[in-house]
Design goal:
By secondary structure, this protein is mainly alpha-helical. 77% of the residues lie in helices and 3% in strands. It has a two-stranded antiparallel ribbon with strand order 1-2. A hairpin with a 2-residue loop joins strand 1 and strand 2. Helix 3 packs antiparallel against helix 4 and helix 4 runs antiparallel to helix 5.
Length: 145
């Protein structure tokens, strides 16, 4: 039964990873088209997406986000097909790193830029979902031993 629960949580991680990838890829494409997406929920998309914090060495943060989410998807698929301890550890490292970066980016939006971007917040929410799901798997695996 616990293995079934773990697989269901991994499928949830796959879904979060896919949604996060779509969001990040969309923002990356718009960055290179020099376009700003419509901001219907919040009102600071342009401020956030054009700030000096939106890039690292000229590469948009969203591009790194897309890479992160692709990595999460890849590790999740590996876990579903071959649940090795190494892949669980990789998932935990990715989830932790994603959560740390999300906290930093939320801080930048609200404390420094004093505005927010709905696409960025969505990405940070998907990262939180991955983090919580990874904790659930870790707790489940811990109780099996």
């Amino acid at each position: 039964m616990k293995l079934l629960k773990t697989k269901l949580v991994i499928y949830a991680i796959l879904l979060f990873g896919f949604l996060g990838f779509l969001d990040s890829a969309y923002l990356t494409i718009l960055h290179y088209k020099d376009a700003i997406p419509p901001c219907t929920v919040t009102n600071g998309c342009e401020t956030v997406l054009t700030s000096s914090y939106s890039q690292v060495f000229g590469i948009p943060i969203a591009f790194f986000g897309a890479g992160f989410y692709l990595s999460v998807i890849g590790v999740s698929i590996l876990l579903l097909t071959n649940p090795k301890s190494l892949f669980f550890k990789a998932l935990y490292v990715l989830a932790d790193a994603g959560m740390i970066v999300s906290i930093i980016l939320i801080y930048i939006q609200f404390a420094i830029l004093k505005t927010s971007c709905q696409y960025c917040l969505f990405s940070e929410l998907t990262s939180l979902g991955i983090f919580i799901a990874a904790i659930l798997i870790w707790k489940n695996k811990k109780s099996i031993k």
